Amino acid sequence: MDLGVFLASFGISLLELSEAGAVAVIYKGIYKSNMSYAYALAGVLAVLVPTFVLGRFLSYLPLDYVLVVAGVILLYFGYKLLRSARRSLKNVKRKHEKEERESLVVVFTVAATEAFEAALVVISLIPQSFSSALLGTALASLLVVALTYALKAKIMKIRVPQLKLVLSALLFSLGTLWLGEVALGIDEVYLPLLFVGYLGLNYALVKL
What we know:
It is a single chain. With 208 residues, this protein is mostly helical. The chain has one domain. It is 83% helix and 0% strand. It is built from seven helices and no strands. The protein is globular, with a radius of gyration of 17 Å.
């Protein structure tokens, strides 16, 4: 086993997938339905299964095209989240069923996005040691499930409209970063600045 590959895949998977678990728990608390877990799992598997099934072949795909498509999708769902947060904070009523369906799509999108962030690193590790990358990712996933269950009572206390604003800023930031990386060669070091900027912009738009 390649210890470096194992630790790298374990660390990045634990970091990214824990955010997906937290979002699933929060929506579970809102709608009292386990469907949020199912959608989060589906989002993660939709990314990680192809990552390991196709393995080394994915490293030959033109990453720029992947980033452009993913970036546009993230901007779209960032807008959807912002609109939903604005409705919630201004007490605009909607049908519960429609709001729940939209929320489950958000859970899927966030989970897939976090898995994609992990996959970008894991793909680069697979050629060095497939088994070590797989083991690290799998163990991290199991640990995320355990931590999510253990901390779910605390996680459920997070207020959803504010969470939507933060998630919207995150999706806007990642979408902008990925599109900017392709078009202008923007480095990931600017992600925190983008996030803070979008968070401030979202807050201002909600207050309008």
